[in-house]
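Shikimate dehydrogenase substrate binding N-terminal domain-containing protein
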Amino acid sequence: MLKKPYITARTNVLCIIGYPIEHSMSPIMHNAALKDQSLDYVYVAFNIPPNDLKNAVLGFKMLSIKGINVTIPYKENIIPYLDEIDPLAEKIGAVNTIKNEGKYLIGKNTDASGAKKALLDAGCEITGKK
């Protein structure tokens, strides 16, 4: 009996973009979690040279890439190519997460909340600090 293919035409695609990105462990980590949860998703890394960023964003829309993690050097440079960014990302001036909702790309920044949680978990007092 043949096993069901891991990746099919219905498989949802998530990715991380950067330049360079070959060193990223994100695909290994995320694919293990997706498989563990039996989700029909695959997570890949795209090495995008700086001059190709705009075309890559158009490709994400057309290919219906469901979610994009953004790393160096694109956290700021990608903003003009998005359809919307949330208020926190706008205030910070950087995006590290993009959600594709029907070819409409929404940028968010989760770095700040992640850093805040790490500080609080470490017992740091951050009330009133900037």
